[in-house]
Amino acid sequence: MSSGLKPVLARLANRATLSEPEAEEAFGIIMSGEATPAQIAALLMAMRVRGETVPEIAGAVRAMRRRMVAVEAPAEAMDVCGTGGDAAGTLNVSTAVTFVVAGAGVPVAKHGNRALSSQTGGADVLEALGVKIEIPFPRLAEVLNAAGSVFLLAPRHHAALHHAGGPRQEIGTRTIFNLLGPLANPARVRRQLVGVFAPEWARPMAETLGRLGSERAWVVHGQGLDELTLAGENQVAALSADGIREFELTPEEAGFERVPAEAIRGGKAARNAAALVAMLMDEPGPYRDTVLFNAGAALVVAGRASNVRAGVAEAAEVVASGRALAALEALRSESARAVG
After folding, report:
1. pTM for the whole structure
2. 1 within a domain of the structure (yes/no)
3. Which domain holds residue 168?
4. Within this chain, do residues 60 and 134 fall inside the same structural domain, yes or no?
5. Cβ(323)–Cβ(105) under 8 Å?
6. Which of 45, 67, 89 is where one domain is finished?
7. Which residues contact 205 (CB under 8 A, 6 or more apart)?
8. Are residues 331 and 249 both part of a single domain?
9. Residue 106 in contact with residue 312, Cβ under 8 Å?
10. Which of 213, 219, 222 is nearest to 246 (CA)?
11. pLDDT score for 118
């Protein structure tokens, strides 16, 4: 047991906030296995009740990044990843977006996990599609370069987080750890489309990405979902060299009609995988349009489109031409070769 967290806990009990270096040190103690479960739970709940700050989130991410298994990636690589936690159980949107963006020629280092708040997580649906998700670490960069995308299974790269697993499960409510995943991509991408489970976290997450060195990012929330939705207005915090711009984005601005979120309700892995393949084969419907909406935004972040409507048009062409489906097939074959 470490006494290092005791002074921190005393300060947090008085509603004090931590600086970025202090937060990095505190979370380093946790991730090094030097804190007790009671200390971890106390720190997480003190921050949650008071409200986590941008310096605290950034410090925690820096502690994660110092301990993660990193992956080499091209400078133009990006990630499309949500925080989870919306408990909506939709079809897999960001995973499908991965193949549309990769089909457009933008490398995607997709950070993700198995199902947590949904029935089927990115890892689950990829396995159902025949993609190998536990590729030897030295081969991950090869797969990314050959296939144009790769899946980075979060628990493999962030093994130090297991020390907080018990307390998090016993607390049973959201903590700062729910915010960290999209901010700690093992490929250290500097361009991201990030979905958050609540609109009030869009700007803080964008500010955190800016502190951590990101070039461009959109942090989005749509009607209770950690992605852009066709169900109504979406909140966006867009990070660029000019700072952070907050705005509302409607489906109509991207060329879509509004559709209830229930229209893309998902299920078990096999069902979601079949829907994903059908979408990549250009099957019309709400799922295809939702994926194109998010892919259009991702192409803006990647610098491939000047606005979302233009990005959607490019994404639609990538799907119609078969390049998105080819990106899935490339990842399937290259991942199999890597573990072979």
Report:
1. 0.95
2. no
3. 79-339
4. no
5. no
6. 67
7. 57, 179, 182, 183, 194, 196, 219, 237
8. yes
9. no
10. 219
11. 55
Cα–Cα distance for residue pair 22/313, rounded to 1 Å: 46
Q: What is the mean pLDDT of the chain?
A: 95
Q: What is the mean pLDDT of residues 249-260?
A: 98
Assign 178 a pLDDT band (cuts: 50, 70, 90). Answer: confident
**Can you give the length of the chain in residues?**
340
